[in-house]
Design goal:
Largest sheet: none
Order of helices and strands: HHHHHHHHHHHHHH
Structural class: mainly alpha
Shape: elongated
Strand content: under 5%
């Protein structure tokens, strides 16, 4: 049985807020422990939403003198969202990740409405400024949040860090273990990521420690400067998926091919000139035409042909 959250005290007594936070997180953790089914997890998300709406509304009416208490309450909501995201599975709970992103959009819009209704009583920055994006590390929820424009700057940095840690390591065991996370990021927000790459987002301001020499060595030596997003880095990630698609473990190979296929045409979707994409698409079109003629069927799609990731090398070598 789920416990309900307590309301924020309206007395304005700052002494009540730490206890409120403690009780709220205690109730939330208890609810998470009791959530054994998808419906249970959905009930937790709905409870967090109700709690978030109450806190967001309360924050819009607090005086400037209570800024630290307001931040404490908002951080409580983000702790609840983040801990919920962390218990959701990539695949089995995909719909619940969507629900969690919808919750974030609802809170963002509710915050905007409260500010419009009570402008003189609102001395605080928007809820996105309370480092929520920096703390949300679940790939399933973070990638979907970035895809719909939530906390774009901080989550795009999170994506960069996650993809570097997954695709720019020379330890194959680590690369394989982190591959599903990388595929989730690429699958959910590939158009944002390729756009960031074309625009060289973050440039030299991004701390590149941890990505290090492996990336530089693989793309031609340490004279190559790759700090943040870049087209060079994007192509390197694509090559890593391509290489891992030949892995001896069929599960790993299929996962990597999924990542490669998610990347290989998203530049074209945005009319960006990404090397290899146009030629690869032509190869796919020819293969589909051949399959159509050979099969005698009225139509075929890409799942009806055996796509060779090596086609991109043939295109680039031509």
């Amino acid at each position: 049985m789920f416990r309900n959250f307590s309301l924020v005290s309206n007395t304005g007594d700052a002494r009540h807020f730490p206890e409120f936070r403690r009780l709220s997180l205690e109730i939330h953790e208890e609810n998470l422990r009791d959530a054994s089914t998808s419906q249970d997890k959905l009930d937790v998300i709905r409870a967090v939403e109700r709690h978030g709406l109450l806190i967001t509304k309360d924050a819009s009416r607090r005086p400037a003198s209570m800024a630290s208490e307001v931040q404490l309450c908002l951080n409580t909501v983000w702790d609840e969202v983040i801990s919920t995201a962390e218990v959701l599975d990539f695949d089995q709970d995909a719909a619940l990740h969507d629900q969690l992103v919808s919750l974030l959009l609802s809170l963002k819009e509710f915050d905007t409405l409260c500010r419009a209704l009570y402008p003189s009583a609102n001395p605080f920055p928007s809820w996105e400024s309370y480092q929520f994006g920096e703390r949300l590390q679940s790939a399933g929820t973070s990638s979907k949040a970035l895809a719909v424009g939530i906390c774009g700057d901080s989550l795009s940095r999170t994506a960069l860090s996650c993809l570097r840690n997954a695709l720019e390591v020379d330890d194959e065991a680590k690369a394989v273990a982190r591959l599903p996370m990388a595929v989730v990021w690429i699958d959910h927000c590939r158009h944002q990521l390729v756009a960031f790459s074309v625009m060289n987002r973050f440039g030299e301001n991004t701390d590149d420690r941890g990505a290090g020499s492996f990336l530089a060595a693989q793309i031609g030596g340490h004279d190559v400067e790759v700090g943040g997003y870049s087209l060079e880095r994007w192509l390197f990630w694509r090559k890593r998926f391509q290489t891992l698609s030949h892995h001896a473990d069929a599960v790993v190979a299929n996962e990597a091919k999924t990542g490669f296929m998610s990347m290989i045409s998203c530049g074209l979707d945005l009319d960006c000139d990404v090397p290899g994409e146009a030629g690869f698409r032509e190869k796919v079109a020819v293969a589909m035409s051949d399959e159509l003629n050979a099969s005698g069927r009225p139509s075929v799609d890409i799942d009806d042909i055996n796509v060779d990731v090596g086609w991109v090398d043939q295109v680039e070598a031509a």
